Amino acid sequence: MVEGRTHRPVIQPEKCHRCDVCIRGCPAEVIPEYRKEEMSLRGTLYRGKAGKRDPEESFPLPPCQKACPIGQDARGYVALIAKKKFREALELIREVNPLPAVCGFICHHPCEEACLRGDVDDPVPMRLLKRFVSEYEREAIRGKRRVKKKRPKVLVIGSGPAGLTAANDLSLLGYGVTIYEALPLLGGMLSVGIPEYRLPRDVLNTEIEGIRQLGVEMYTNHFFSFDGNGRSFRKVGFQAVFLSTGAHGSMKLNIPGERLRGVFPGVAFLKDINLRKTIELGKKVAVVGGGNVAVDAARSALRLGAKKVEIYYRRSRNEMPAIPEEVDEAIRDGVKIHFLVSPIKILGKGERVAEMECVRMKLG
């Protein structure tokens, strides 16, 4: 906060959150002459750091919006929800996010971690508010936004979050869009990588259907082989292609015994569950890792009938990359977590896994 022409506001640096609200409200933002005042603190500031900012930074983003990977205007839709303008809030969200309900269920909400309200009591529950307005307005017809297609046709390979978002945005710009998906389900890793208890399939299917209503054609069980020079997709009528094949590979431990029967790569394990494949699990299951895949695999194993599921993670709880709420839910489900432990060998009886040898770790 800086002084005005008629009074001097009191500045309390210890309470300043650097939100720049005072800067945005300063008339010097729109009246350049005010920035050149030599006798005022305001003029001094604008000739210093404030005057060196890029024009795009004249109105800095709120911390919540800056923390969001897609720059979602969280403050805007929260304000609309507070005014009970639910339809308007949903449309504001959809300007940059075609999958609001999905994010309402599974987003790790960095916006809430950056929320300044958390310094007072609790952050604004932006993820839950997004989920609420998405479900409240679930029947909102997205097809009304359908745009007449005048531009070239674009092929999108893969129907995961990136592919669906590209299809949504390209369609709204007037391009004809077709999605080819190799799997029997649309949604990519949203369908086969995330357990249904975390992301209900009817919610995901509703989001996908909304994008289909924009005029996007979607095909499953459809592999596409790229010849490297573009002739293969031009031959079928496309002038451009967007590759969104996803990250379906699992990480390996590279330790002895990893190829024993009963050792499942995490991503492949979740994929097989969601594709309704038969999986032979024992009564005791050990999960190695501390990310969301590990936590999802552990909780899914319990739901498949395992009696005892334990997670082994090489660092402490503070370093776990999994969403904290999901870790808490896993513990409530009965999953036991061993910290500062790393496997060095998997032992078997015959060709099937039986034991795992670990070493104790220490944080550096």
Describe the 3D structure.
With 364 residues, this protein is α/β, with parallel strands linked by helices. It has 15 helices and nine strands. The protein folds into four domains: 45 residues, no CATH class; 78 residues, Alpha-helical ferredoxin (Fumarate Reductase Iron-sulfur Protein, Chain B, domain 2), CATH 1.10.1060; 97 residues, FAD/NAD(P)-binding domain (3-Layer(bba) Sandwich), CATH 3.50.50; 95 residues, FAD/NAD(P)-binding domain (3-Layer(bba) Sandwich), CATH 3.50.50. Helix content is 33%, strand content 14%. Strands 3-2-1-4 form a four-stranded parallel β-sheet, covered by helices on one side. Helix 15 links the parallel strand 6 and strand 7. 30% of the residues are buried.
Tags for this model:
33% helix; 364 residues; alpha/beta; 14% strand; FAD/NAD(P)-binding domain; 3-stranded parallel beta sheet; Fumarate Reductase Iron-sulfur Protein, Chain B, domain 2; globular; 4-stranded parallel beta sheet
